[in-house]
TrEMBL record, chain A:
It comes from the Eukaryota. Signal peptide: none annotated. GO terms for molecular function: proton-transporting ATP synthase activity, rotational mechanism. Belongs to the ATPase F chain family. The chain crosses the membrane at residues 56-76. It is a single-pass membrane protein. Pfam families: WRW. Subunit f, of the mitochondrial membrane ATP synthase complex (F(1)F(0) ATP synthase or Complex V) that produces ATP from ADP in the presence of a proton gradient across the membrane which is generated by electron transport complexes of the respiratory chain. ATP synthase complex consist of a soluble F(1) head domain - the catalytic core - and a membrane F(1) domain - the membrane proton channel. These two domains are linked by a central stalk rotating inside the F(1) region and a stationary peripheral stalk. It comes from Nyctiprogne leucopyga. One of its GO terms (biological process) is proton motive force-driven mitochondrial ATP synthesis. Keywords: Acetylation, ATP synthesis, CF(0), Hydrogen ion transport, Ion transport, Membrane, Mitochondrion, Mitochondrion inner membrane, Phosphoprotein, Transmembrane, Transmembrane helix, Transport. Component of the ATP synthase complex composed at least of ATP5F1A/subunit alpha, ATP5F1B/subunit beta, ATP5MC1/subunit c (homooctomer), MT-ATP6/subunit a, MT-ATP8/subunit 8, ATP5ME/subunit e, ATP5MF/subunit f, ATP5MG/subunit g, ATP5MK/subunit k, ATP5MJ/subunit j, ATP5F1C/subunit gamma, ATP5F1D/subunit delta, ATP5F1E/subunit epsilon, ATP5PF/subunit F6, ATP5PB/subunit b, ATP5PD/subunit d, ATP5PO/subunit OSCP. This is ATP synthase F(0) complex subunit f, mitochondrial. It is found in: Mitochondrion inner membrane.
TrEMBL record, chain B:
It is found in: Mitochondrion; Mitochondrion inner membrane. SUPFAM superfamilies: ATP synthase B chain-like. The gene is Atp5f1. It comes from Nyctiprogne leucopyga. Gene3D superfamilies: 1.20.5.2210. Belongs to the eukaryotic ATPase B chain family. F-type ATPases have 2 components, CF(1) - the catalytic core - and CF(0) - the membrane proton channel. CF(1) and CF(0) have multiple subunits. Pfam families: Mt_ATP-synt_B. One of its GO terms (molecular function) is proton-transporting ATP synthase activity, rotational mechanism. This is ATP synthase subunit b. It comes from the Eukaryota. GO terms for cellular component: mitochondrial inner membrane; proton-transporting ATP synthase complex.
Length: 88, 252
């Protein structure tokens, strides 16, 4: 009774490791597709952590932590000069 | 929320989807709101969001590592990662580290101390908003219910229409009957007048004929009396009278 689900419609968690490149290749990379993916991701995050009766701190703090990490990565080339040892 | 449900139900729905029906045509035989994707009425907001540990890491991560590494897995991972970053100086310690530590400690102290109060205040605001929306909804429901009752009352009133029409019909029947009888009376009177006229005419005619005939007979009789007969009759009358007077004298 279990009909085979197409590879391109499977969710990421169900994709086996060997099928990953094919799965990535079959995704929708048009601007509309990327926009749709961003909107889906945003909706998922929003509805899970923010659009609730008693929202907690985690919803906002995770976004801020992500921002901190990304800005650290972008400014790493400047921070490299503050290293104590040159060779690790 | 609906997008999440769509994402979760997509494989199942692909199996269970009924044959597609064009949007413009709505057959009344097609059952509505039976597929998983259409939930009506809208499900209520979830009480709490997804669980987040230490304010940074979603609990699903701990669950993800639990089967392979047990409870301490994520913590060992975190410690190892931190040491790796420090030793390879992927995370460099400089003045910004000190600043970040001070800021973070202040933030955490503030949250621990005033977190619950702020949460209670926010909850109160939310409650007020929800209460207002609920009040509007209940108001609308009440108004609609009174409208329904009034509508039912109007329908009940409409049932009395039949009595009204019966009364009107009776009135009209009476008026018709009256009219008919009036005309019948008129006809009767007219016919009687004509018949009376004919009767009077016949009476008159016969009377005139009678009178005329009597006059004519008298005239002829008087004419037929010759003078000779007149003298004889007068003499006879005198003799009769004398005889009578004699008998009368004798009686006395």
């Amino acid at each position: 009774l279990c009909a085979a689900v197409l590879l391109k419609d499977m969710k990421l968690m169900d994709v086996k490791l060997g099928q990953l490149p094919t799965w990535l290749a079959m995704r929708d990379f048009t601007p509309g597709g990327i926009l749709g993916a961003v909107r889906r991701g945003y909706d998922r995050y929003y509805n899970k952590y923010i659009n609730v009766r008693k929202g907690g701190l985690g919803g906002v703090s995770m976004v801020l932590a992500g921002y901190v990490v990304v800005s650290y990565i972008w400014s790493y080339s400047h921070l490299k000069h503050d290293r104590r040892r040159k060779y690790h | 929320m609906l997008s999440r449900l769509v994402l979760r139900a997509a494989p199942a729905a692909l199996r269970n989807l009924p044959p597609p029906v064009t949007v413009g045509v709505l057959h009344t035989t097609r059952p509505l709101h039976t597929t998983q994707q259409c939930l009506a009425p809208l499900p209520p907001l979830p009480e709490k969001g997804g669980e987040v540990r230490y304010g940074l890491i979603p609990a699903e991560f701990f669950q993800f590592l639990y089967p392979k590494t047990g409870v301490t897995g994520p913590y060992m991972l975190g410690t190892g990662l931190l040491l790796y970053l420090l030793s390879k100086e992927i995370y460099v310690i400089n003045h910004e580290t000190v600043a970040a530590a001070c800021i973070l400690s202040v933030i955490i102290y503030g949250i621990k101390k005033y977190g619950s109060d702020v949460a209670a205040f926010a909850d109160k605001l939310n409650e007020e908003k929800i209460a207002k929306a609920l009040a509007v909804k209940n108001e609308a429901i009440k108004d609609l219910e009174t409208a329904i009752e009034q509508e039912k009352k109007e329908q009940w009133r409409v049932e009395g229409r039949s009595y009204l029409f019966d009364a009107k019909r009776n009135n009209i029947a009476m008026v018709l009957e009256t009219n008919y009888r009036e005309r019948l009376l008129t006809v009767y009177n007219e016919v009687k007048k004509r018949l009376d006229y004919q009767v009077a005419l016949q009476n008159l005619k016969r009377q005139k004929e009678q009178d005329h005939m009597i006059q004519w007979v008298e005239k002829n009789v008087i004419q037929s009396i010759t003078p000779q007969q007149q003298k004889e009759s007068v003499a006879k009358c005198i003799l009769d009278l004398k005889a009578l007077s004699k008998s009368a004298q004798a009686a006395v």
